[in-house]
């Protein structure tokens, strides 16, 4: 139910939802805490009436759970027998005002309320009483001044020898010539300056079939250096599309808008799709992959961005869900070692795996803090800590070399065997035992491979790069998220290899340097 179905209760507890649905417990003071006390009392006294009360309480819990399951079934099938059911997706969310929507009883009140807002006051009232405000309003309302272009003019005046359709040699030219201004940047050792070129070209018309033609291939309004610079602002400097447009417009006096920057980003992402595919290929054919996933920023939620990285390459892949289908696509044919957390989807990849022992240690530490007096679990945690500390001392001294780490394999096997054979009396101990048994062949894989770390920090570091960008994006579409994933993969790969992202985008190269 959590995050999907919301009952009008203060919590998702069985008692609150059950009572909301009309079920009443025979025991008036029924609660989990009371049941524990009654159980202890029965163990001490062995009274039959207390036992009967506990059994009846347990039956009531089962019947209430069945009632809730039935209600959830009706909700999922949109059963019309539940009149109070509301799908939040159908709720219209209008314009959000600071103090809520003003539900006016009279038309006059609505007009008066609108007149109190800041924009109305500034543009309609204070402009008549304050000269400074009036000049500011007039200046902001002026049409945007089109920047002057540089004196460089290129005339494209090649006349076709004949019509490409009917081969007629008699052509006549439209007058006057048409023009196209291309804005760009010029980089030098001393800085960056704006460059603009006006292209003048002619259209020709065939006298036979009346087909129109020109030798000039119309260029984009923005040149390659400017496009590379805008992508650099968005991806590496983490500016929003609006701020990137404002920044470039202020520095170079260019006619840029938020939508223009978004369009350029999309075009550049499409251009570098082959580069992105090459990065994915390099990762899938390498000896090691660190993998992790995080939530995307697609409107509506439920979307994810997966991270695949090694020590020199990073790739981000968009997915509509957290299912393992993306792993089958990206890691198809991978034969190296996969380092990941304990998310079950990674178990579907048929390759040697190393689970992040930092995740395991943090979970153990959390359970210890919750159960400080559980001596059974504390003993297991101490054994794990001592084993891992000895291994890390070897790593610090010799690095991730099998010939040095191999001496710890026997101790690791003994630890796993010891935990699996334990007769744990506590719930936390049994849960940890089950976890160790399930991942017994994935906890100490790094002892048998050169260069394989015992943690997933490389992927977590790559996730942080997307998280910083996600905070700037705020919201996006599936296509927009794919564009960001493509460009960020290139930027982070270049960063891992000590290369400059802006220089690569300006160079026009399609393969990331090694």
UniProtKB/TrEMBL annotation:
Name all Transposase IS66 central domain ranges.
220-476
One protein family per Pfam: DDE_Tnp_IS66
Q: Which InterPro entries match?
A: Transposase-related (IPR052344), Transposase_IS66_central (IPR004291), YprB_RNase_H-like_dom (IPR038720)
What domain of life? Answer: Bacteria
Coiled-coil positions are none
- Domain YprB ribonuclease H-like, chain residue ranges per copy: 9-72
PANTHER family, per database record: BLL1576 PROTEIN (PTHR33678), PTHR33678:SF2
Its recorded name reads Transposase IS66
Can you name the source organism?
Methylomonas methanica (strain DSM 25384 / MC09)
Q: What is this organism's lineage? A: Bacteria, Pseudomonadati, Pseudomonadota, Gammaproteobacteria, Methylococcales
């Amino acid at each position: 139910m959590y995050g999907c179905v919301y009952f009008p209760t203060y919590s998702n507890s069985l008692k609150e939802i059950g009572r909301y649905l009309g079920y009443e417990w025979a025991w008036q003071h029924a609660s989990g805490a009371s049941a524990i006390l009654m159980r202890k009392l029965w163990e001490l006294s062995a009274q039959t009436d207390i036992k009967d009360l506990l059994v009846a309480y347990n039956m009531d819990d089962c019947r209430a759970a069945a009632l809730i399951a039935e209600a959830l079934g009706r909700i999922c099938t949109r059963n019309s027998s539940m009149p109070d059911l509301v799908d939040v997706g159908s709720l219209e969310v209008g314009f959000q005002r600071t103090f809520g929507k003003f539900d006016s009883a009279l038309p006059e009140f609505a007009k008066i309320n609108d007149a109190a807002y800041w924009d109305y006051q500034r543009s309609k009232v204070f402009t008549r009483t304050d000269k400074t405000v009036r000049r500011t309003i007039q200046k902001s309302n002026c049409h945007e001044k089109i920047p002057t272009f540089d004196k460089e003019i290129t005339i494209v005046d090649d006349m076709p020898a004949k019509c490409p359709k009917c081969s007629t040699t008699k052509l006549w030219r439209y007058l006057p010539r048409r023009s196209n201004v291309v804005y760009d940047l010029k980089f030098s050792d001393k800085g960056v300056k704006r460059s603009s070129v006006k292209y003048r070209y002619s259209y020709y018309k065939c006298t036979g079939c009346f087909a129109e033609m020109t030798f000039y291939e119309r260029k984009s309004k923005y040149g390659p250096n400017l496009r590379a610079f805008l992508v650099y602002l968005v991806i590496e400097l983490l500016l929003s599309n609006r701020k990137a447009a404002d920044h470039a417009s202020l520095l170079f006096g260019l006619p840029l808008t938020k939508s223009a920057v978004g369009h350029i980003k999309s075009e550049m992402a499409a251009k570098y799709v082959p580069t992105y595919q090459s990065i994915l290929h390099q990762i899938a054919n390498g000896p090691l992959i660190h993998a992790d996933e995080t939530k995307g920023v697609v409107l509506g939620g439920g979307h994810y961005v997966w991270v695949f990285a090694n020590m020199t390459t990073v790739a981000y892949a968009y997915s509509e869900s957290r299912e393992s289908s993306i792993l089958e696509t990206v890691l198809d044919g991978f034969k190296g070692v996969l380092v990941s957390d304990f998310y079950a989807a990674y178990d579907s990849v048929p390759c040697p795996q190393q689970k992040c022992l930092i995740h395991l240690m943090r979970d153990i530490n959390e359970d210890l803090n919750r159960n400080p007096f559980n001596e059974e679990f504390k003993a297991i945690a101490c054994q794990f800590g001592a084993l891992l500390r000895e291994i890390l001392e070897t790593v610090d001294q010799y690095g991730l070399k099998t010939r040095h780490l191999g001496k710890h394999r026997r101790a690791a096997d003994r630890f796993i065997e010891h935990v699996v054979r334990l007769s744990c009396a506590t719930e936390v101990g049994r849960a940890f035992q089950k976890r160790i048994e399930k991942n017994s062949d994935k906890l100490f894989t790094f002892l048998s491979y050169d260069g394989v770390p015992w943690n997933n920090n490389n992927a977590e570091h790559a996730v942080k790069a997307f998280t910083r960008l996600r905070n700037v994006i705020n919201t996006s579409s599936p296509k927009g998220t794919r564009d960001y994933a493509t460009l960020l993969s290139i930027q982070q790969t270049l960063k891992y290899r000590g290369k400059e992202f802006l220089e690569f985008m300006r160079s026009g190269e399609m393969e990331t340097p090694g």
